[in-house]
Amino acid sequence: MPKYMEIYHEVRRRIMVGIYAPDKKLPEGGRLAAEFGCSELTITKALDVLVREGLVLRKRGLGSFVKRQVSAASNSHLIGTAQRCAAQGKTLATCVQWYRAVPAPADIAQKLQIPEGELVHEICRVRVIAQTPSIVEYTWMPVALFPHLALRHVQHSIYAYITHELGYTVHSAHMKVTGRRASEQELMWLALAEPTTLIQVEQTAFLDNGKLFEYSCARHLWHTFNFETDFVRV
């Protein structure tokens, strides 16, 4: 793992556990460089990742600060589809297309920040909400983190397994929302007769101990997808 990623993980861990508190300034680059035995450029690269993830905010002439998470709406993406549907009073059925352990290809290993070839759970599910096939979910999770993940968890709720059975807390996630044309297979799974564009939500999610535990790519019907957030001037 590159040095800057090691530093990223450690600084992120400190943010997660409150060593670096919201709205507080991070140590200067020179101080962090001395602590980690690297150049200030390496520290900058590590902080760049945290900025992209939305955990750190740079203020011109002042330094880098831990960003306060102000959007309650975004927390809905930290509880999983099953709990979101339950909260909205909607029924949910899950059709598992595949669930297997495979060596992580290069792109997935990079997303999960693990060595290429390390075993990951590779999961594809179609989520049927209120009797309408609505989401195709592709998920990858390190087997080393969840060696006892079973089909029954995949069929019900992986997040419920992580939080209720294992006792972890899902702390944060980085999301990217784009549009993507549905594949022929996805058209069939979603019972669509005509080619269409789906709303694609890519997500990397983190536990409160700082571990990156999931990369997922969920493709939603455009007319059932809803996302809200807040913007605050700081």
From TrEMBL:
Listed PANTHER family: HTH-TYPE TRANSCRIPTIONAL REGULATOR GMUR, MANNOSYL-D-GLYCERATE TRANSPORT/METABOLISM SYSTEM REPRESSOR MNGR-RELATED
| Gene Ontology BP annotations | negative regulation of DNA-templated transcription
Where is the signal peptide, in residue numbers? none
One Pfam family of this protein, by short name?
A: UTRA
Q: What name goes with this protein?
A: GntR family transcriptional regulator
Superkingdom, natural source: Bacteria
Where the record annotates domain HTH gntR-type, the positions are 1-69
Keywords per UniProt = DNA-binding, Transcription, Transcription regulation
Annotated GO MF terms:
DNA binding; DNA-binding transcription factor activity
Please spell out the taxonomic lineage of the organism that makes this protein.
Answer: Bacteria, Pseudomonadati, Pseudomonadota, Gammaproteobacteria, Enterobacterales
Q: What SMART domains does the record tag this protein with?
A: HTH_GNTR (SM00345), UTRA (SM00866)
